[in-house]
Amino acid sequence: MPTTAPTAPALGDVTASDSTLRRFLHGLPGVDAVGLEARAASLGTRSIKTTAKAYAIDLAISMVDLTTLEGADTPGKVRALGAKAVRPDPTDRTSPSTAAVCVYPDMVAVAKEAVAGSSVKVASVATAFPAGRAALDVKLADVRDAVAAGADEIDMVIDRGAFLAGKYMKVYDEIVAVKEASGAARLKVIFETGELSTYDNIRRASWLGMLAGADFIKTSTGKVAVNATPANTLLMLEAVRDFRAQTGVQVGVKPAGGIRTSKDAIKFLVLVNETAGADWLDNHWFRFGASSLLNDLLMQRQKLATGRYSGPDYVTVD
């Protein structure tokens, strides 16, 4: 499903005012929902076996943002999560580490200590996650606290109320402010696609986030009924592909919530390869927001290595 975006020189002017931004976002091509879902379903039928499957499982492990975002999180739980992120399978040193651990801002320092000396990043949700219902100064203080504690990445939520009310410049300005407050930390912008209602809104949010400087665009918080789906992820992959074609700037994609099995993860990797291309098949540009996915990936990895599934105690229960 080809999309048509304005030429690169025009993009410098689209955020000059609320009216120009609105004109640009509503001028994006409408989404053919039937075509989008059919293509996502078709790509999901691709079969990957043997060596290619083993490669895909290791790649998926390396793309996991191992996540705990519960009110009952304790330092001990976060330390255990960090240890698992660094060495997902203590019995097999060939297993790759995950990309990151994702925690609340008050647990960043604990997570940072737990993954010290490894390649694992510490991501922190911020900006009054998951609802985003707070004043901007409160949101920015949230971000600065996480960065000061050592966060390598910030996962922010957009103001869905403002977006759905058509206050696009307000959302844009907030993302720009959070990006500045994030400093050197990479910024993931969460849309909560399940609350945006339409594919057209998801496309508009994707372009809005990228125009504002997002390093990643992310589907969901994992806290609502509808989270990452093949169709909404495919749409966001089309957006980052087209944005790079217009600007030369590459932006990552992170589907989050509801991806629980190796089979699901591999379907998403096929979407990445067939839509955005091989440049995104790297954990610098594609992530899975997940808590239970890693266990299934490890079980499937062990099955490929030994020919049998392990018992229920093979992986830790998060």
Count every beta strand, where a strand is a DSSP E run of 2 or more residues.
Answer: 8
Principal-axes geometry comes out as globular
Main beta-sheet annotation: 8 strands, parallel
Adjacency order of strands in the biggest sheet: 7-6-5-4-3-2-1-8
What's the alpha carbon Rg, rounded to whole Å?
19 Å
Q: Helical region count?
A: 14
Any low-confidence stretches, pLDDT <50, length ≥5? 1-9
The amount of beta strand, in percent, is 5-15%
Q: Mean pLDDT, as a whole number? A: 92
Provide the structure class: alpha/beta
Report the span from N to C terminus: 39 Å
Helix-strand sequence: HHHHEHEHEHEHHEHHEHEHEH
**Helix proportion of residues, in percent?**
40-55%
Summed up, what is this model?
The protein has 318 residues and is an alpha/beta fold.
Topology (elements, then pairings):
Elements: H1 8-11, H2 18-27, H3 33-43, H4 50-62, E1 64-67, H5 75-86, E2 100-103, H6 108-114, E3 121-125, H7 136-148, E4 153-157, H8 160-164, H9 168-182, E5 186-190, H10 193-196, H11 199-211, E6 216-218, H12 230-247, E7 252-254, H13 262-275, E8 288-290, H14 293-306
